[in-house]
Amino acid sequence: MPRANQHNKSERANGLPEWIQPMAATLTQERFTGPEWSFEQKFDGIRLLAFKNGRDVQLFSRNHLPQNIPAISQAIARLPHNQLILDGEITWRRVGVNYYVFDIMWIDGREVMSVPLEQRRALLRELELTKPLHRVVELDHESPWQRAEAEGWEGVIAKRRGSIYEQRRSRNWLKMKCELAQELVVGGFTDPQGKRAGLGALLVGYYEGDDFVFAGKIGTGFDTKLLLGLRAQLDQIEVEKPPFTKAIGLPRLRAHWVKPKLVVQVGFIQWTKHGKLRHPRLLGIRHDKSPREVVRE
Q1: Rounded distance, CA 268 to CA 275, Å?
Q2: Rounded mean pLDDT of 223-236?
């Protein structure tokens, strides 16, 4: 992978890179805060990189495809800087397009990808952005993902303080998407692998009339104590055959089947087109719900 101060395309005669691979965030199911992290709103839009060279402005998608958005190009052209490379997200609303700028990689002949996040944010604060340009600000909230859910955002981005801008997917940027929640019934589990204890993943489903429909597997949201406790509990209700009556993609290797008695609460991003959970994680055990009451919401 190229380092942050290396450009994977040729430079113009005046030193401005023709292209910079945008830094990408890694999806996480964790929910955390800490002094080493800062948080920003995650926008439900399209990634856009802006290259300003004098009055010339070029806009590109994250895949280096040219974009023609005159309102944004004109606003960037008016900025009192000869050279800029900006990173952000565009969204469309009824009133038009908006560009939410969250990083800066180049300014007036100077590459700033290799300086810490806080310094890049300071440079952004100095830019005189006017509509449709907006500066993405650091969130001041003890539980930023709760604010995201309350205000209907797509999610939040956690950025490690002191980190540089990397031209790759990095764990120094973590994206936390707002979740849906669903009660599901455990119909089986898989064996643990490696150093994991207890079980690998829960195999879960819901009822659709008389059918018990397989909805996928849950492998995150556990600690060791819970893994061992669940395994002991599920061993007591193990059966020979799968209880699922509608099951596409049901695992066969290292799988165990149980009577559908245990109800769990699951957080996930969305249902896939094949009716499976996308990025599920265990939120807890439901002792107040009968398995036959569990239907897809």
Answers
A1: 13
A2: 95
